[in-house]
Specification:
Elements lengths: L1 H19 L5 H32 L3 H15 L8 H9 L6 H11 L5 H8 L3 H18 L15 H16 L10 H17 L4 H14 L2 H4 L19 H16 L5 H14 L8 H14 L3 H15 L1 H9 L5 H4 L2 H13 L3 H13 L4 H20 L1
Helix pairs in contact: 1-2, 2-3, 5-7, 5-8, 6-7, 8-9, 8-10, 9-10, 10-12, 10-13, 12-13, 13-14, 14-15, 15-16, 16-18, 18-19, 19-20
């Protein structure tokens, strides 16, 4: 039915677009037209079935017609989710699927991410992620899970998975896991746009508000994150005058609003950390003890090896690189860290600061072997070369 509806939509486009002009958003036009065609098909089939049954029973046709009219009117009521893409994400994050499987499947089918990119986001081997996708699709097929847009009161039960999807899409946009671009702006913009809609839908959900705040506070630094030639600029080296003050103000207000709701979660804590960074006028004035304290809370609320790694980075800023390196090395036995390029890059930075040049060069080399994006690769190559030269001369 979906294929036939899309085919109908293309035929309609061929008839109308030469006369009326190509719409501003052709993809959305096709989607909406196809959806309307599918609804028409369903209604015609239901009407025919109702009429046939009514005639067969000898029932008065006006009762069937009235019932059909009421049903059609109900179907035409405004859907609580106004955005097509977000509606599909809520639909795919079905509670019958395990959250990790639902998020992975949604990212693959709707989020624009490839299987390798999703595997890196989940810190699992690509083969493992592929198996999850296969199992999720099999469960949908064998269990006959119906994909439907949840009604207003059922939106919240899918919220956690939906927020995870938007979070990972934004992360892939802000720090591309591969390719020649450091930032995929279209993914950042789309994630923020949909996060705004979620907050409008569920304004009393603090984690939804916290995620939007996190995205805005992080994206505010994007203009300064790239140099004139597209090279990566580290946070401590960024020209803070280029940060987006309006986004910082909006994000700060949102995180204050979320925290006042009294249900602290992972996205709110990450947003609070981002706010501390954004409030610092210079890198030297950053309140690292406060950031470390927030990471301590985050490690209790939402423990993960990535949180532990970020905590180690904050710890190094407070207690020195040797302490930070010890905290990072304590994570070395975690399988998730073996192929996580930021783990090896962080080790390289700590070893460089400790003048352990040969080890630093090796750590940067391991990060490079994991195939980062072009600007990050150039940064790591420069660091590795510097460490190798210092090591050979020392």
């Amino acid at each position: 039915m979906a294929e036939e509806a899309v085919a109908d939509a293309y035929v309609t486009a061929l008839e109308r677009w030469p006369r009326d002009g190509i719409p501003a958003n052709p993809g959305a036009w096709i989607t909406t037209t196809a959806r309307n065609r599918a609804i028409d098909r369903v209604r015609r089939a239901r009407t025919l079935s109702a009429k046939t049954e009514a005639i067969g029973r000898g029932a008065a046709f006006d009762e069937a017609a009235r019932a059909g009219a009421v049903q059609a009117a109900t179907e035409d009521e405004m859907d609580p989710i106004a955005d097509d893409q977000l509606r599909l994400i809520f639909t795919c994050c079905h509670p019958a699927l395990a959250p990790e499987a639902a998020v992975a499947l949604t990212l693959r089918t709707l989020g624009g991410l490839t299987t390798p990119e999703i595997a890196r986001a989940f810190l699992v081997p690509e083969a493992t992620l592929a198996q999850r996708l296969v199992r999720a699709k099999r469960k949908i097929r064998e269990a006959g899970i119906s994909y439907e847009v949840p009604s207003g009161e059922r939106l919240a039960e899918r919220l956690e998975s939906v927020l995870r999807v938007l979070y990972l899409v934004f992360n892939e946009g802000y720090d591309a896991s591969e390719g020649e671009a450091l930032i995929r702006r279209e993914l950042c913009a789309e994630a923020i746009r949909m996060a705004r809609i979620v907050v409008d839908l569920l304004p009393t959900e603090p984690e939804a508000v916290g995620l939007l705040a996190l995205m805005l506070l992080t994206d505010a630094r994007r203009p300064a994150r790239e140099g004139p030639g597209g090279e990566m600029v580290r946070l401590e080296d960024q020209a803070r005058t280029r940060w987006d003050a309006a986004r910082i103000a909006e994000g700060s207000a949102l995180i204050e609003r979320a925290l006042r709701m009294g249900r602290v979660g992972s996205y709110q804590l990450q947003a609070a950390i981002a706010a501390v960074h954004d409030e610092a006028a210079t890198a030297e004035s950053t309140d690292w003890p406060q950031i470390l304290g927030l990471y301590e809370v985050l490690a209790r609320v939402s423990p993960s090896p990535v949180v532990a790694l970020n905590r180690a980075v904050a710890l190094a800023q407070v207690a020195g690189p040797a302490v930070g390196l010890a905290a990072v090395d304590a994570l070395a036995t975690d399988p998730a860290m073996a192929d996580y390029r930021f783990f090896h890059a962080a080790r390289g930075d700590f070893l460089r600061r400790l003048a352990r040049w040969g080890e630093a060069a090796d750590a940067y080399g391991r990060a490079l072997a994991l195939g980062p994006n072009g600007p990050e690769r150039a940064y790591l190559e420069r660091r590795r070369s510097e460490a190798a030269v210092r090591g050979s001369s020392g």
